[in-house]
Design goal:
32 strands; about 10% helix; Neuraminidase; mainly beta; 5-stranded antiparallel beta sheet
């Protein structure tokens, strides 16, 4: 087993940075608000890739969109998609992870850049996607919001969930709070931000923080299980939960108002909302339906096999995973399975497997699912070979998303020289 584990480390191209966030997609559409009533045009999937797509931010034109994506299975990069929702274009090209894009002047943009040994810091990038200037000195950042030209509000990605204000001229950093959730949101026309702030009992509240007065003002209790809020029209604040977007106006509301609901099956687990400056375009982030999430996980697994990427391949597998292969051998445990696959590539570097789901069935409590499909293996060692058959997979829902508990492969056809060994 030690030898197989070593082979797994050598033969698969593992990297230190991994894009293993939850499976999410970015959707966009038109928005019209008349007398407080929201009308949203049909939403279209703007990111269109299995895996993590998040942090949408509108460009200055109000029609193009920036977002972060983990589509290569190895790291997070910044992407940009135009008004026609064509193919998203990768805009950051450094080997580190980048998050939370925001456009700046003259084609530049700001991001949170994850630097080895230095934590995550706020950088400005050039239009060609390379780092230009370190904007803020604080590190281990999770989110940021520019309050004005000289002030940035920062969320620290640490157990205490610190809240910082940094002066961008002097780089003085003031720690003004803790236990906040995700991104601060600027208050229009004021040196202030809103934050979701947990009280000492863990109850989340939407609060306003005035920077010069150094004062928190409680506005309303945040919605249950919501960690993100965003700016709405005319100073309102938005939160999303389930299939619904809620609004709160600090000037007149005493409770959240439901302003939009979605029937689309892929928009039943909303996480974030982003409006452009004109208020006529909307972007939402949502986790896909369970069956879609499982198909996406399978697509990422297929991609990892082709790339010989053990960490990405193992991301969708439970530690206690079991498999029965097409020739009847059995493996117990994720590590043993990954090592055995690595050994097969040592013997045949041309070997590739592709699993294609035909049907995914999720049980009513959404804790388990079955996947039925066909698998195909190909090899060019000693001549072209092709083999395959049906498979059955058992998925379980975990905090990390849907993961494989077991698989059964059956070989029913084979052509080529490899057949003599099977």
């Amino acid at each position: 087993m030690r030898r197989l584990a070593t082979l797994a480390a050598v033969l698969f191209a593992a990297t230190s940075a991994r894009a293993q966030g939850p499976d999410t997609e970015v959707w966009t559409g038109t928005l019209s608000i008349t007398n407080g009533a929201w009308t949203i045009g049909p939403l279209a999937n703007a990111s269109r890739a299995p895996g993590y797509d998040n942090h949408p931010w509108w460009d200055a034109d109000g029609r193009s969109l920036w977002f972060v994506s983990g589509r290569d299975g190895k790291q997070y990069d910044i992407y940009h998609v135009g008004p026609d929702l064509g193919t998203p274009v990768r805009r950051s090209h450094e080997p580190e992870n980048e998050y939370s894009p925001k456009p700046a002047a003259n084609g530049f943009f700001t991001v949170l850049r994850e630097e080895a040994g230095l934590g995550t810091r706020l950088w400005r990038y050039r239009p060609d996607g390379t780092p230009d200037t370190l904007v803020a000195r604080a590190d281990h950042l999770g989110y940021y919001a520019f309050v004005d030209a000289r002030t940035v509000a920062l969320y620290v990605n640490e157990p205490a969930r610190g809240f910082l204000i940094e002066d961008l001229r002097t780089h003085r950093i003031d720690r003004v709070g803790e236990r906040i959730r995700a991104q601060p949101v600027p208050v229009p026309g004021a040196r202030a931000v809103t934050v979701i702030h947990d009280d000492s009992s863990g109850t989340p509240w939407l609060e306003r923080y005035d920077i010069d007065a150094r004062k928190f003002t409680r506005l309303v209790r945040s919605l249950p299980n919501v960690g993100w809020h965003s700016a709405g029209p005319a100073g309102t604040v938005l939160e999303a939960s389930g299939n619904t977007i809620y609004a709160f106006d600090p000037k007149r509301d005493t409770a959240w108002r439901a302003v939009a609901r979605f029937d689309h099956p892929e928009l039943q687990a909303l996480a974030r909302v982003s409006l452009n400056a004109a208020g006529d375009r909307i972007a939402v982030v949502s986790q896909p339906a369970d069956s879609t999430a499982i198909r996406n996980a399978r697509a990422l697994s297929n991609r990892a096999i082709v790339a010989r990427d053990s960490a990405a391949f193992a991301a969708s597998i439970r530690p206690e995973f079991t498999v029965t292969t097409s020739v009847g051998t059995h493996s117990d445990g994720r590590d043993a399975y990954v090592a055995r696959l690595a050994a097969s590539y040592r013997d045949d570097p041309s070997l590739v497997y592709v699993r294609t789901p035909d049907r995914v069935t999720v049980n009513p409590d959404r804790k388990r699912a079955s996947e039925e499909g066909t698998w195909v293996g190909t090899s060019t060692l000693g001549g072209a070979s092709r083999f395959g058959g049906p498979y059955l997979a058992h998925w379980v829902r975990t905090e990390a998303g849907w993961q494989l508990l077991s698989e059964l492969f059956v070989g029913v056809h084979c052509t080529g020289p490899i057949c003599a060994k099977r």
